[in-house]
Amino acid sequence: MSGTKLYEGKAKILFTTDDPHILLSRYKDDATAFNALKKGTIANKGEMNCAIASHIFQYLEAQGIATHFIKQVSPNEMLVAAVKILAIEVVVRNIAAGSICKRLGLEQGQALKEPLVEFFYKNDDLGDPLITEDHIAMLDLATPDQVAQLKKLALGINHHLQIFFDQCHLTLVDFKVEIGVDVNGNLLLADEISPDTCRLWDQDIADPSDRIMDKDRFRQDLGKIAEAYQEVTKRVLAVDISAHS
Ligand code: UDP
After folding, report:
1. Is the CB of 201 under 6 A from ligand 1?
2. Whose CA is nearest to atom 11 of ligand 1?
3. Which numbered atom of ligand 1 lies nearest the CA of 118?
4. Per-residue pLDDT tens over the stretch 145-179
5. Cβ neighbours of residue 110 closer than 8 Å, sequence gap 6 or more
């Protein structure tokens, strides 16, 4: 099924297929944090994140969000549309956590008045710095029209994901998305949506460390990492997507 390796990232490998418009994305067990300074593996993460992302992509498609997802073809592989990925990481935050607390002195867990969209320059050598819309224009990373679309798309994804994760008794604290441009110039949600890319807090647990159900368990050496991913997988797959279409 898979052709030649096109690109190997930290969590996935992209292969060509017989169709130039379609790529195969293979999810890995490898986990990295802090710009790959911390490395490890999480048992079965590839299969869990592939299953989670496939389910969520199909849910978002049913809500009218265009994604690169075509179909899951094995436990850790999916076919996706070949797109040009913008060099911008789009982060949406509902609750303050992680880098924004350090940057702006906010308290971890503080609810934001409104969802906040931030842009980061996807550049490992520079450590993915925060950038403004003017930086995006200066660096030619996207057009002003695309930036406006990115914001709207990111907030729409946030709205639908919040509804989705609420059904899993998980609070969507924040998440990162990557956006691709297809041959027709349309923006598509690409990369993945998983506990690697979202902060998810268990609504049934009060303890601030115990409730963490995402890659922060790996980043902060909190233990029970694979167990948290397994629990998220179970809850995500239990959501009936057809009830939302
Ligand atoms: N994130 C990601 N990849 C990155 C950086 C961040 O998926 O390279 C996700 C992260 O998991 C979190 C959100 O984006 O859900 C916001 O991350 P933040 O800016 O707080 O950075 P961090 O504290 O994770 O370094």
Report:
1. no
2. 197
3. 19
4. 999 999 999 999 999 999 999 999 999 999 999 99
5. 95, 96
